[in-house]
Amino acid sequence: MPRRSAALDRATPEAIAATALRILDEEGPAALSFRALADRLGVSHATVQRRCTDLAGLLDLCTEHLAGQLPEVPAGTDWAEATELRFTALYRLLVAHPGLLVLRGGRPWVGRQLLARLVEPALADSVAAGMTPAEAMTAYRRMYLLTLGSAAFVDHRAPAAARETSRAALAALDPAAFPVLGGHTAEVLPALTDHEVYYGALRQLIAAARPAAA
């Protein structure tokens, strides 16, 4: 019987993902490395690398770990309600971990957990409600891009800092050249970090896509 490795027992995929997310949340994207992970887990650099091979593999572990937290919507839930539940849950997860968004960039999110918890049930519900598969995918894609873009737009964990950075940039503008941005800063800034901007836009997309049968 092969001997179990104590280091591999400590460096499970779940432990690696959770630790990587803590590093990203506490120290930012620049601090994440196999060596930093190994130090926190109390294992060797090589042990971490055995688990995830490279940075892309590590990021995939992180996204799968988060996708496992997405809700399983009960069968029979109204289509619009189910759609809003799924995408608002994804939005909240992404907003909580901005460092992961920075590192993933445009990489596709196609892990099994995400497909099983979000993509497949969302598409299946849409088809069952009367959409064609192509219509279901188009509606899903619009809501997914809205969610991803809204979460990545600013670091929502530090809204005050985001607003102050934008305020300083707008204050430097020539009001004659930028009459709306320069002349209405107090009205423009709150929307940058207002979660209701996302929720309202998502509901508009849901209403526009809602199949007649639903």
What would you say about this model in short?
This protein is mostly helical.
Written overview of the protein:
This protein is mainly alpha-helical and 214 residues long. The protein has 13 helices and no strands. Helices cover 69% and strands 0% of the residues. The model has no long low-confidence stretch (mean pLDDT 90).
Map the helices and strands.
Blueprint lengths: L5 H5 L2 H15 L6 H8 L3 H8 L2 H13 L11 H18 L1 H7 L7 H17 L4 H20 L6 H13 L7 H5 L1 H4 L6 H15 L5
Helix content bin: 55-70%
Quickly give the structural class.
mainly alpha
Biggest beta sheet attributes: none
Q: With helices defined by DSSP (H or I, 4 residues minimum), what is the helix count? A: 13
Give the mean pLDDT: 90
Shape: flat
Order of helices and strands: HHHHHHHHHHHHH
Q: Write down the Rg.
A: 21 Å
DSSP, total strands: 0
Strand content: under 5%
Span between N and C termini?
56 Å
Low-confidence stretches: none
Descriptive terms for the model:
single chain, 214 residues, mainly alpha, 0% strand, flat
